[in-house]
Amino acid sequence: MQVFTTKKELVEFRAQQDGQRRSVGLVPTMGALHAGHGSLIKAAREANDVVVVSVFVNPLQFSDLGECDDFRNYPRNVEADAAFAESLGADVVFAPSVEEMYPSGTPLAWVRTGAMGEVLEGASRPGHFDGVATVVSKLFNLVRPTRAYFGQKDAQQVAVLRRMVADLDFPVKLVAAPIVRAADGLAESSRNQRLNDAERTQALALSRTLFGLRDGNFNSVEEASKALDASDGVRVDYLTVVDPQTLKPVDVSARPALALVAAHVGPVRLIDNLEL
């Protein structure tokens, strides 16, 4: 396996693959790889001749363009990530610096995500999805993948990027892999590393509430949200049920529907979702 830190290395590698007409799977990540990322790499390995895993903590999708503790404290260990990716069959890890990805500083031209990027996570984190769409567009242009793999845990991200691919005519198939959960139900996330044992137990309230909505244990979203907010150590940002294609709110009894939650547990803001 090869580790590239520059765009030039990656572009030269891709030119070689083009000559051999090989399919390429891209798994974009921000590192701190876990079992959820592993499922994406495995899926890419099964369907493609070449697998590229990007490891890049993108400041554009954080508040204040990365001038925040969330960005500074985000776990980073490229060596461990590269070893993990290699163990699952990745051919390339692309791990650029911020200066390599944005050599002129904060870009002047961005991909705007409109109304779909302004609700839910976008309302809580203004500009977040514009930052995601911008960096993913750059990765698509650099890697030119046949398929790109994203986790369903970031359900709004998947919906936004599907629309971006369709609206901007990117020649790539976007593949969404199911959420990987620990045995106790907690959705795998790089941010889980920042939870202590007590906080991790408290975080189980998120998935418990989502499954309760699915199983009819709550009469309304409002009732479920109040119950979650009353859980020890949990502060709810939002809990909602939406149409999975448009992200517009629907009644809890509607089908198909997607329940999404964001909440603070200890120092960490966690998200989760579940198809109802």
From TrEMBL:
It catalyses: (R)-pantoate + beta-alanine + ATP = (R)-pantothenate + AMP + diphosphate + H(+). Beta-alanine binds at residue 61. Pathway: Cofactor biosynthesis; (R)-pantothenate biosynthesis; (R)-pantothenate from (R)-pantoate and beta-alanine: step 1/1. GO terms for molecular function: pantoate-beta-alanine ligase activity. Keywords: ATP-binding, Cytoplasm, Ligase, Nucleotide-binding, Pantothenate biosynthesis. It is found in: Cytoplasm. It comes from the Bacteria. The keyword tRNA processing does not apply. Homodimer. Belongs to the pantothenate synthetase family. PANTHER family: CYTIDYLATE KINASE/PANTOATE-BETA-ALANINE LIGASE, PANTOATE--BETA-ALANINE LIGASE. This is Pantothenate synthetase. It comes from Corynebacterium striatum. The gene is panC.
